[in-house]
Amino acid sequence: MTTRGVSVEVIRAGMDEAGTRPSGAAPPADRGSPRRRRGPGWMAFLAAVVVVMGALGYAVARPKHPHAPLLRASGIPAAVPTSTADLMGLSPVPTKPAPGFTLVDQHGATVSLSSLRGHAVVLEFMDPHCTDICPIVSQEFVDAYRDLGPKAPGTVFVAINVNQYFRTTADMASYSREQGLGIIPDWHFLTGPVPALRAAWHDYGIGVSAPSPDADIIHASIVYFIDARGQERFVAAPMVDHTKSGASYLPPSQITAWGRGIAAVSGGLS
After folding, report:
1. What is the DSSP string of 107-165?
2. In angstroms, rounded to a whole number, what is the distance separating the alpha carbons of residues 71 and 59?
3. Of 11, 68, 100, 126, whose Cβ has the fewest other Cβ atoms within 10 Å?
């Protein structure tokens, strides 16, 4: 299955916390190095992935001329504007059962994917100590919840922990408070034993590099949209930009667009 000309497997294996700035987005005043450090081996791998994605995906999905209309992948929900789908890297995937998991959330409650049937599930993978892309995606989740309005009870927002060194429910609760995610009634930041976390990372194709408690956690960032029957339906590829000082950000207009896009997709899956 391809996503705008790029295989879903490539996206799952290769997207890291730095992400990419979509075409048409306003460039930062001075783009600097990402706050998260990366070794030479990781950077070489990431460079190869960026080359592959650029050569395959952007050649297919991005217009040849800057004023040409954006191309729209088939299967994108009608409620999602083409510009928003392009910004999100939104793509349908083969409809199949999403991999199951059973973990505990920030309140200590056991949550399984099967227990969420009847609701659309917006699933991400986050680090509770992240200062890079995770807070950006968290804000997009909060915006999406607000944008859902009366449809909000039909959607559950879920993140699975990628930091094996910080995996207590207190870690999940602290991050949730800091990012204002408590406003979402059906927000679950899941954690658990390392083998169970690693199984979830593997099943969803989330690459994680965590060499030691003092090293930066490098992980793939993909949003999965799972329908009320527990079927995978769409994926999206979050992105983040950095200032010269290394602070991560996205322009407010893009965060707003992401929130509306997440709401439009999930609101049609419950």
Report:
1. TS-EEESGGGTTSEEEEEEE-TT--SHHHHHHHHHHHHHHHHGGGGGGEEEEEEE--TT
2. 11
3. 68
User: Has residue 22 got a pLDDT over 50?
Assistant: no
Q: Mean pLDDT score of the chain, rounded to an integer?
A: 81
Q: What does the block give as tokens for 258? A: 């992401």
- As a whole number of angstroms, the distance between CA 25 and CA 94 comes to 29
For 117-157, the pLDDT digits (tens) are 999 999 999 999 998 999 999 999 999 999 999 999 999 99
Say if CB 172 and CB 130 are below 8 A apart: no
Q: Following DSSP, what letter does each residue of 6-66 receive, concatenated?
A: EEHHHHHHH--TT--PPTTSPPPSS----SS---HHHHHHHHHHHHHHIIIIIHHHS-SST
Half-sphere exposure of 12 (CA within 13 A, CB side): 17
What CATH class has 2-267?
A: alpha beta
Contact 111/103 with Cβ under 8 angstroms?
A: yes
Q: Quick one: how far is CA 145 from the chain centroid?
A: 15
* Backbone φ and ψ of 68, nearest 5°: -75, 150
CA–CA separation, 89 and 69 (whole Å): 16
Residue 210, burial from CB neighbour count under 10 angstroms (0-12, 13-18, 19+): middle
- Structure letter (DSSP) for residue 169: H
User: In the chain, what are the domain boundaries?
Assistant: 2-267
Residue 181 DSSP symbol: G
| Both tokens assigned to 201 | 């990372």
Is pLDDT of 78 > 80? Answer: yes
CA 123/CA 119 separation, integer angstroms: 12
